[in-house]
Design goal:
This protein is of the alpha/beta class and 503 residues long. The protein folds into three domains: 241 residues, Beta-lactamase (3-Layer(aba) Sandwich), CATH 3.40.710; 102 residues, 3-Layer(bba) Sandwich (D-tyrosyl-trna(Tyr) Deacylase, Chain: A), CATH 3.50.80.20; 109 residues, no CATH class. A six-stranded mixed sheet has the order 1-3-2-22-21-20, with helices on both faces. A five-stranded mixed sheet has the order 18-8-6-4-19, with helices on one face. The longest helix has 19 residues.
Length: 503
């Protein structure tokens, strides 16, 4: 019979407790090595036949992983590089949860100079890179100034956006996209994603001018309306343009980088009675000055007189903080960003990541570097061939593989700190986001949470499939070089996922 002295017993007990505590304190459990299993031959043949029927010339990459077993159950060109389109947003979202944390909030500061009874010198808005800052937040600032009893601003409205650098568009973004709302510039102060939406809706009688509204409502731009209401069930010929109807853009004219003050949007054509509405979004050329103009409008509505101008500049050292507009937690903000595939907000978040991990100003370069380090050091994926040229996937320079994308899905599924928040941002098939109208009558309805990616000749889908009670699947589909439309892509994805669901 062996005996141990007290010192040995205490040492063994200490080692046991220490090991237990270290295990419990891990925020992410280690992900086991993945293994590969093959589907049954008939099922494999049906999937391969569906791919062949789709388009033999298209470049197709697929990986499907059973998460509980950590097994690859099907893959097709898993290590080839593809242009991913908007599913690249998943890298940015995962990195944001890692670096910032689910509870992170942005704070936009309001400061005043020379407060004296009912007047001040300059009014400052110091931006923080809040991706979801809105016109409602501008109204909050104006109300704060009014509640302070301020009736006169003797100086300027100064927008301090120096937390981000001055590069407004992502690497590889197309020059002829920059006027479009989905390609809006990125600043430290963004209001309603730096775009103006123009809505038109039909009136009661054919021939009546269409109704018009803009969001956010402002006098920053002008709208010229010649569009008319048309008979029900006729075709729509609505146009939203910066060029007057009947005119063509001057030969050799430079493309516009977005709307400027007092620019006119022309709304022409016909809108049938049976339509609910039609709209178009336009980007803003200078987001900070636009935000300042909106604030000036709201202050004047509150009866506050402003002698100075709207300008960009640094906050004075003697300025006094009077309010901070605090954002929702990042976990909530990401739901809006990912479910509706918001390019501008994602790129803003990319710069915010760069700001968090480095010194000001935040930049695309710092953000993409941080995301890549997250992928290589935390997710432990092999980054050879991976190019994250931007954060949203709008750049055609970006490249990644199905295996790399699925590795991030696996990592976040096992991640205690941000995994649940990550999955909650995905659109649900047949229910919301960019999958709202897809698979409503399919067995996949409500059983898929996935991010879409669509550009010309590109179709992607990445996310999770709720399989059996004991298994959930992570999947990535990428198609490049396809002339088929998005609906045909989704039919292929549906065929394959329904086959997996039936296993």
């Amino acid at each position: 019979m062996h005996t141990y002295n007290n010192n040995k017993i205490q040492a063994i007990f200490f080692i046991f407790v220490f090991a237990t505590l270290m295990t419990c304190c891990q925020t992410t459990k280690p992900i086991p090595e993945i293994v590969t299993t093959k589907l049954t031959a008939p099922l494999l043949e049906r999937i391969e036949a569906a791919i062949d029927r789709y388009n033999p010339q298209a470049k197709i990459g697929i990986q499907i992983v059973a998460l509980q077993k950590d097994e690859v159950i099907y893959q097709h060109n898993p290590n080839q590089m593809f242009t991913p389109a908007s599913i690249l947003k998943l890298y940015t979202a995962a990195a944001a949860l890692h670096y910032l944390g689910p509870s992170y909030r942005f704070g936009t500061q309001v400061l005043v100079e020379d407060l004296n009874k009912n007047q001040i010198g300059d009014l400052y808005v110091r931006a923080s890179g809040d991706p979801n800052f809105s016109a409602n937040d501008i109204t909050k600032i104006a109300n704060t100034v009014k509640q302070l009893g301020i009736k006169n601003i003797q100086g300027n409205i100064v927008i301090d956006d120096d937390q981000f650098d001055g590069i407004l568009w992502g690497n590889g973004w197309m020059w002829n996209d920059m006027i479009n709302g989905y390609s809006a510039p990125i600043s430290a102060l963004n209001v309603d994603y730096n775009r103006i939406a123009v809505f038109a809706w039909p009136q009661k009688n054919p021939g009546d001018p269409v109704g018009i509204t803009i969001e956010p409502y402002t006098n920053f731009i002008k709208v010229n309306v010649t569009a008319k209401t048309a008979e029900a069930n006729s075709s729509s010929s609505m146009q939203f343009s910066l060029i007057p109807p009947g005119q063509k853009q001057a030969k050799g004219a430079s493309p516009t980088n977005g709307l400027i003050k007092d620019q006119t949007i022309y709304v022409s054509g016909k809108l049938p009675k049976h339509k609910t509405y039609q709209y178009e979004t336009f980007s803003i050329a200078n987001p900070s000055l636009f935000a300042g103009f909106l604030l000036k409008e709201q202050l004047e509505k509150n009866g506050i007189q402003i002698k100075g101008q709207v300008k960009q500049g640094e906050t004075a050292t003697n300025a006094r903080l009077v309010d901070t507009i605090t954002s929702r937690p990042l976990s909530e903000s990401l739901i809006d960003i990912v479910k509706f595939s918001n390019n501008q907000a994602t790129e803003t978040l990319l710069k915010a990541i760069g700001l968090k991990v480095g010194e000001a100003p935040g930049s695309f370069e710092k953000g993409t570097k941080a995301v890549r380090e997250f992928l290589s050091q935390e997710v432990k994926i092999k980054t050879k061939g991976l190019v994250n040229a931007d954060g949203s996937g709008l750049s055609r320079y970006s490249q990644t593989s199905p295996e790399q994308m699925t590795s991030v899905l696996r990592y976040m599924w096992h991640n205690f700190r941000g995994g649940a928040e990550f999955v909650a941002t995905f659109p649900i098939a047949g229910e919301d986001g960019t999958l709202n109208s897809n698979w409503k009558t399919s067995p996949l309805k409500g059983r898929i949470r996935a991010k879409t990616g669509t550009m010309s000749n590109i179709c992607s889908l990445a996310g999770y499939l709720d399989g059996t009670p004991l298994e959930t699947y992570a999947f990535t589909f990428m198609i490049n070089g396809s002339s088929f439309d998005g609906e045909q892509c989704r039919k292929l994805f549906e065929q394959i996922l329904v086959e997996v669901l039936a296993t």
